[in-house]
Amino acid sequence: MVRPQIEYFYSAHSAYAYLGARRLSQIADEAGWEIVHRPFDFLPVVAAAGGPPLAKRTQGHIDYFFGRELVRWAHWRDQPILRHRPTHHDNALAPASGMILASPDPTPLSAAILRAHWVDDADIADRATLIAIADEAGQDGGALFATGQSAPVQAQFAANTAEACARCVPGSPTYFVRGDMFYGQDRLEMIKFALGTPFPD
Fold it and tell me: pLDDT of 67-100, one tens digit each?
C-alpha cells in the first residue's frame, strides 16, 4: 500500500530544518505518512522567491532570526545548538544533499547531517566527515558518498532546486501536504493537523 507523502524541501545546512527534523519524523510516523526528501541548493531558491541574501539583511534581523530565535527554538525542542554561525556554513551543499538522495533511509541520515553541522560544527562538504556521519548512522558511508556524487543523483539535486524555485519555496524548511505549502518548522503542529484534516481553501 502506497503511503501518503509529506514533501520536504530544505537545505542540508539549515538550522531550522535541524530543529524541526525530529518532530517532523515523529509526526509522519504517528500518522503513517512518508517523508519525501527534496534537498536543494539554498541561495538560488531564496533568490527566486525574492528573499534578500544574508549580506543585505540588517544586523538586527540576523541577530533575531539567526540568534535569539534559534536559542529559543532549540530550548523549546530540547535540542543542543551552536551559539555561533557554523565554521563551514558557506561550503557546498551538493555532497551532503547527494548522500541524502542516495540513501535508502534518508530521514535518519539527513537528521544526522544537520545535527553534525549545527551541534558538532562539522564540515558537511568534506568526504571523510560525511562518510563518518553515515557510518555512525548505520549506513554505508563510502557507498553513499560515491553514489551521491554520481551524475544522476546530482541531476536530482539540481531538479529539486529548480522545482523549489518554480513552486516559490520561500526558504528552508518548507513542507507540502497534498500540495498545500507550509513554510518553517514552526508550522509542524499545523502540518500534524493537516495530515488528518486539510485546511480550507
Answer: 999 999 999 999 999 999 999 999 999 999 999 9
Catalytic residue among 11, 14, 110, 172: 14
Whether 14 is a known active-site residue: answer: yes
**Read out DSSP for the chain?**
-PPPEEEEEE-TT-HHHHHHHHHHHHHHHHHTPEEEEEE--HHHHHHHTTPPPGGGS-HHHHHIIIIIHHHHHHHHTT----SS--TTTTS-SHHHHHHHHH-SSHHHHHHHHHHHHHHS---TT-HHHHHHHHHHTTS-HHHHHHHHTSHHHHHHHHHHHHHHHHTT--SSSEEEETTEEEESGGGHHHHHHHHHSPPP-
Domain positions in the chain are 5-196
Instruction: Report yes or no on whether pTM surpasses 0.85.
Output: yes
Which fold does the domain 5-196 belong to in CATH? Glutaredoxin (3.40.30)
